[in-house]
TrEMBL record:
GO biological process: signal transduction
Name this polypeptide is given: Methyl-accepting chemotaxis protein
Keyword Ligase: no
Entries under Gene3D superfamilies matching the protein: Methyl-accepting chemotaxis protein
Cited PANTHER family: LYSOZYME-LIKE PROTEIN-RELATED, METHYL-ACCEPTING CHEMOTAXIS PROTEIN MCPB
Length: 278
């Protein structure tokens, strides 16, 4: 700001709060004497009056030395609420800083928004991490269930192979039984000479019947096992489908929360009160 505008600026100071609709106060400081030239208090009252001395700070030195504005954040302990202050140099006709306009504005609302968005960002990060973990677990579960389903199918195939073996045993038993019957007939025809052979034929018949009964029991047990495996397989397919759907849903949720996290991060950045670093 040039010095020629300073007088007019001081004249309109009392109307600034009304016009700007903001909670601000303005102090015009004589940069050479470091005293108050003009003061327009708002809710953020500095408790100063024209002519009062102002303690020179590093911020004042920065503005005077560099001849440019400086924006800083003011802790709540000074005004009861957080605020920001903008120091603007006023240059005389020689380009030297003759005065400093100090505008202070409450940023209580902005600070609350910043804190809220920071909490939101942190919460969304935690939520996103949890959902990604669920998605990963769901994917592992889906893979595990598929492996179990494949194992069940392989077991069912092996049971079918055993069924074929049992069928062969039944056929062997049937033929053995016929051979035993034929041997008994021939032994009867041979009379006393075939008596010993008749005993062997009877034992062969008993063994054949025992093999048949054992094969039938094993076949019955395998049939029950096969039915159980088929039942389990059907349930596994249902669980597998649900698991796949869950994994897909978790991945979609993870993608959505990624977007929300990105948005909340942007909100956090937007809500931050900017300051000019020295």
């Amino acid at each position: 700001m040039e010095e020629k505008y300073l007088k007019k600026f001081i004249e309109i100071l009392p109307a600034l709060n009304e016009v700007m609709q903001e909670d601000i106060n303005v102090v015009v400081i004589d940069a050479r004497k470091m005293t108050v030239m003009a003061y327009a208090p708002g809710k953020l009252d500095r408790k100063v009056k024209v002519g009062d001395p102002i303690e020179k700070t590093e911020n004042h030195d920065f503005v005077i030395r560099n001849k440019k504005q400086m924006l800083s954040k003011i802790p709540a302990k000074y005004f009861g609420v957080p605020a920001k202050g903008l120091l603007t140099p006023v240059l005389d006709e020689n380009g030297e800083v003759c005065a400093i306009v100090n505008v202070t504005q409450s940023i209580e609302r902005e600070t609350k928004i910043e804190e809220s968005t920071s909490v939101l960002f942190s919460s969304m990060n935690q939520l996103n991490a949890g959902i990604e973990e669920v998605a990963s677990s769901s994917q592992h579960l889906s893979t595990f269930i598929k492996e179990i389903d494949e194992f069940g199918s392989q077991t069912e195939e092996k049971i079918n192979d055993i069924d074929n073996i049992i069928l062969d045993i039944k056929n062997i038993s049937k033929h053995s039984n016929l051979l035993a019957l034929n041997a008994s007939i021939e032994a009867a025809r041979a009379g006393d000479a075939g008596r010993g052979f008749s005993v062997v034929a009877k034992e062969m018949g008993k063994l054949s019947n025992l093999s048949k009964e054992s094969a039938e029991r094993v076949a019955g047990s395998l049939s029950e096992i096969k039915s159980s495996i088929e039942f389990i397989g059907e349930k596994i397919k249902i669980v597998s489908l649900s698991s796949e759907n869950q994994a897909a849903a978790a991945e979609e949720m993870a993608a959505s929360t990624d977007e929300i996290v990105s948005i909340s991060k942007q909100l956090t950045e937007f809500a931050k009160v900017e300051t000019m670093e020295k």
